[in-house]
Amino acid sequence: MKLRHLQAFVAVAEEGTFSRAARRLELAQPPLSRYVHELEQELGSELFVRGRSGAALTPAGWLVLERALAVLKTFRDIRDFVPSSDTSARVLHIGIGWGLWEAFERIRTLHASRFPAARVTAADLSLAHDSHDERSTDMVITRDRVDASMFERQSLFEEHFVALISERHRLASRESITLSELVSEPLLLFDRRLEPGIWDRTWALIRLAGTRPRIVDGQPPPWALEGMAMIASGDGFYLGASSPFTQTHRASGVAAVPLRWPRMRLQVRLAWRRDAAPTVKEFARSARAALAMDNRLHWRRAEKAVPTEATGEGG
Questions:
Q1: Are residues 69 and 29 both part of a single domain?
Q2: What SS3 state is found at 60?
Q3: Minimal CA–CA distance to 191: which of 204, 202, 182?
Q4: CATH number for the domain including 105?
Q5: Closest of 308, 230, 291, 304 to residue 107, by C-alpha
Q6: Is there a single domain that holds both residue 163 and residue 200?
Q7: Angle, CA 115 vertex, CA 111 and CA 120 arms, to 5°
C-alpha cells in the first residue's frame, strides 16, 4: 500500500465519480482505477459500488475512508513540518470564520503575486468547531478574541451589524433600522461555538441597546440552508456582519439591512502563533497590503451615510 493508493481512494470517495477524481488528481482514469483496484485487492474487500451514476462507498469503504484521511493528514503534517529548501513553497493552512472568504481570497491573490510558488489552503472554522485542532492551521482570520500571550495578531478590518430579515418584511426596504424596531420579532440565535465573535457581540449589542428581543436559542446558523429558510419564511431574524470583505447574504428571500448604530463594530483579525515560520509572517504582510486601503475608504463612506442622531441605542 502506497500513498497514491490512499490518495486515489479518497479522491473517488469525495468526488463521487472516477472521472472527477482523475481530473482532481491530474491523472488519466485508467491508472486511477488501477490504484483503487490494487487497494481493494490488498484489503480483500470492495470499497465502492460502481454504477452509471458514479461510485458509492460500501460499508467497508466508509471504514477505510476515516483511516485514510487520518493517514494523509499525518503525511501532510510531516511534510509541512520539515523545512523546505524553498520556504516560499511551504503549504500555509488558514482557518476562516463565517463569511470571510472574500477577505481571504484578496489576501491569497496578492500573496500569490508576491510568491508564485506559495501554496495556501483554507478551512472553515465554523464547520470545524468540534474537531478543530489549532495545530492544523498556521493562521486564522477570525472575529473571535485571541490570546495575546500565545498569538501574534493584527487587525484587518471592521464590520458593522446587519439584521437578516425576510425580503417580504415591512422593514426590508429601509436603508437602516434600529434593534428596538425588531424588539417584537424572534431573534434566532445559534450555538456560540459556530461563530463566537458574532455571538458575543450580539449579546453586547442587546445589553447596550436596553431593549431585548424575544430570543430563540439553539437555532441553525444563518449561513446554513435551514437558517436561510427560516429567515425567508419570516420565522425570525438573525444578526450578521457586513463589510467590503464580508459575504453576508446574497440569497433570494433574504435581506441584509444595516443596524443604525455605527459605533458597534466587529473587529476581524489575523492571528498566528508567536513561533510561526517566516512564510506565515509574509502572509500577514500581504494581508495588510491587500485590505488596508479599501477598508479606510469604506468607513469614510459609511460614517457619512449612516445617521448618527440619538436612537435610544447608543451614547
A1: yes
A2: helix
A3: 202
A4: 3.40.190.10
A5: 291
A6: yes
A7: 60
Query: Measured between alpha carbons, how far is 214 from 29 in angstroms, rounded to an integer?
Result: 56
User: Grid coordinates in use for 134?
Assistant: 489549532
Cell numbers describing residue 125:
472554522
SS3 of 235-302: CCEEEEEECCCCCCCCCCCEEEEEECCCCCEEEEEEEEECCCCHHHHHHHHHHHHHHHHHHHHHHHHH
Model confidence pLDDT, tens digit, residues 3-37 = 889 989 998 988 888 888 888 887 888 888 999 99
pLDDT at 249 over 70: no
Q: Is the same domain home to 138 and 168?
A: no
Backbone angle region of 253, left / alpha / beta, with phi > 0 → left and psi within -120 to 50 → alpha: left
Q: Is residue 146 domain-shared with residue 277, that is, in the same domain? A: yes
CB 251 within 8 A of CB 228: yes
For residue 186, being part of any structural domain is answered with: yes
* SS3 label, residue 101: helix
Please give the backbone phi and psi of residue 68, each rounded to the nearest 5 degrees, phi first: -65, -40
Q: How far is CA 109 from the centre of its chain?
A: 17
pTM: 0.62
Tell me if 311 is assigned to some domain: no
Q: Do the domain assignments include residue 315?
A: no
- Tens of pLDDT, residue by residue over 168-207, are 999 999 999 998 899 899 999 999 988 898 999 898 888 8
Spatial distance between the Cα atoms of 170 and 177, rounded to a whole number of angstroms? 11
Q: What is the DSSP letter of 85?
A: S
Neighbours of 108 (CB within 10 A): 21
Q: Establish if 312 belongs to a structural domain.
A: no
CA-nearest of 291, 15, 4 to 156 is 291
Q: Are 87 and 277 in contact (CB under 8 A)?
A: yes
Domain with 142, as residue range(s), is 87-155+269-305
